[in-house]
């Protein structure tokens, strides 16, 4: 980052190698679009008006031309600020999301490097932060809850636990934690996931929580099993992002105990193994792939409301298969 700042403060070259022309480098630092809605910190204390340049913010610091940009994601926050005509640049990296200390630290460094009388930047920013937090606390006191009282979840908490995946957003892991759940996005830490009402849960509103306020709603399939989790991760989209439950893993040895013929009325249903996947074949019908949902319950791929559940006898051996469809269920005994 220091090398990048040295390049930005130069003439478009680094270590004698030209990367961009001097005019183009100056152009990307020059404001192109007016920014009319400014935070309080940029309308006082020697900080001038801002315009947006080409990937930078063009402003002034106590009469000196300043170019800067900050950014943050998933628990990280950083700031790169420069005074181009003074050949001064500051890079600050932090491991805390939305870190309000970065700007006053940079400005304090500028004061010292420019030889100016130190300004109490940290005190001023802390006063603004305290004011904002006080207003937020007051707003919370008057916040009206829309939660419906006296409701119950559709399943036990243990049945909500599992992994849910979306091809674009990765995996969400739900785990039971006492009388509540936790939610973890991909490799991030687990956050409390507290029930609001019915099957809707939310991450509590905490100031240092990156996921604060995130809500999710669980849905069931035709068999009454929880199979989806809907989360409004993108407020501008007309629909929520849907995560589909990831099937539990089962060993091939266990799958082999399920293979065989089952008496289904006057017909014989056959359970076969193709690679690591079970298949169901019933005379006169196509072969269906079986998708594990939980335990020894499998859905028929492509058929909503159709599933099979393998059952054991007192000795622990598979002795029957419950075939479920929207109109009812049938028991198929395993043939010896």
Helical proportion? 10-25%
Q: What portion of residues belong to β-strands? A: 35-45%
* Amino- and carboxy-terminal Cα gap: 71 Å
Question: What's the level 1 CATH class of the largest domain?
Answer: Alpha Beta
Q: Average the pLDDT over all residues and give the rounded result.
A: 89
Written overview of the protein:
The protein is α+β, with helices and mostly antiparallel strands and 336 residues long. It has helices at residues 2-8, 22-28, 102-114, 121-141, 157-160, 252-258, and strands spanning 13-14, 17-18, 33-34, 51-52, 57-61, 64-73, 76-83, 88-94, 162-166, 170-177, 180-185, 190-197, 200-202, 215-220, 226-231, 241-245, 260-264, 267-274, 277-281, 288-294, 297-300, 307-312, 318-325, 328-334. The chain folds into 3 domains: 2-141, Beta-lactamase, CATH 3.40.710.10; 157-245, Lipocalin (Beta Barrel), CATH 2.40.128; 252-334, Lipocalin. The chain is built from 6 helices and 24 strands. The protein is elongated, with a radius of gyration of 30 Å. The strands form 4 sheets. Strands 9-10-11-12-13-14-15-16 form an 8-stranded antiparallel beta barrel.
């Amino acid at each position: 980052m220091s090398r990048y700042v040295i390049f930005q403060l130069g003439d478009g070259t680094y270590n004698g190698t030209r990367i961009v022309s001097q005019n183009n480098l100056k152009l990307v630092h020059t404001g192109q679009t007016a920014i009319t809605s400014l935070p309080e910190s940029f309308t006082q204390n020697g900080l001038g008006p801002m315009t947006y340049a080409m990937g930078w913010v063009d402003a002034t610091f106590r009469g000196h031309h300043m170019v800067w940009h900050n950014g943050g994601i998933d628990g990280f926050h950083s700031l790169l600020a420069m005074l181009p005509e003074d050949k001064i640049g500051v890079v600050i990296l932090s491991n805390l999301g939305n870190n309000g200390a970065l700007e006053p630290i940079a400005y304090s460094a500028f004061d010292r490097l420019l030889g100016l009388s130190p300004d109490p930047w940290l005190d001023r920013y802390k006063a603004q932060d305290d004011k904002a937090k006080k207003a937020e606390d007051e707003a919370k006191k008057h916040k009206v809850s829309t939660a419906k009282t006296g409701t119950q979840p559709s399943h036990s908490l243990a049945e909500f636990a599992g992994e849910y995946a979306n091809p674009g957003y990765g995996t969400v892991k739900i785990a039971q934690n006492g009388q509540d759940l936790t939610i973890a996005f991909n490799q991030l830490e687990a956050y409390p996931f507290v029930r609001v009402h019915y099957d809707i849960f939310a991450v509590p509103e905490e100031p240092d929580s990156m996921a604060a306020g995130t809500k999710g709603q669980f849905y069931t399939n035709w068999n009454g099993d929880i199979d989806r989790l809907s989360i409004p991760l993108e407020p501008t989209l007309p629909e929520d992002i849907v995560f589909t439950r990831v099937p539990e893993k089962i060993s091939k040895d266990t799958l082999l105990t399920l293979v065989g013929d089952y008496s289904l009325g006057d017909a014989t249903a056959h359970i076969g193994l193709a690679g690591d996947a079970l298949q169901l074949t019933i005379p006169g019908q196509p072969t269906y792939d079986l998708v594990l949902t939980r335990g020894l319950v499998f859905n028929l791929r492509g058929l909503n409301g159709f599933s099979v559940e393998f059952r054991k006898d007192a000795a622990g051996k598979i002795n029957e298969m419950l075939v479920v469809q929207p109109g009812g269920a049938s028991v198929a005994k395993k043939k010896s």
